[in-house]
Give the backbone structure.
Amino acid sequence: MNGLRERWTVWIGGLAPRERLLVGAAGGVLVVLVIWLGLVMPLVGAVRSARLRVETAERELEIATRLQEDLGAIQGRLAAVERRIREGPRGNLFTTLEELAVQSAVKVESMEPQAAASSDAFRETKVQVVLKQVTLAQMVNFLHKIEAAQQMLSVKSLRVRTRSDRKGDAVAELLDVTFTVSSFEPASGA
């Protein structure tokens, strides 16, 4: 190491003052460049990367907070529906639908039981209802009465077909309607 230092000193000593100044400036630029590339740039990159991670984490936290609020609202609505099922009136779905049809001045063509999914907490009863030659007002009234019934009823599917019937000179726009209604009751152990 001493030999290298001596050679360096001899070499620098043999240079003119102006050359020494240029070598010193080049050495200073080299030191600044090494410090810049070896220390400053990695630190700037690390700060930038940390800032991006913080922004990403804040966005994810905001999304998670919104999802938690949505989940709370959904759980609240689910609890209200479950309470309505447990505390609400019970009855035969066929009888209830027949009573609502009479109140709506609708003649039910047919009602057929459908397979329903089972649950540990609730039992679902499904019925497919077919109406023939009803007006739009009758159909809407009947569906509204189903949705507003004290018993927990839900319309699951709805298919409406138009039909034009001639009565004298007038053409009546009547509908053929098929829909499925579900009723829920607590399972025997719930």
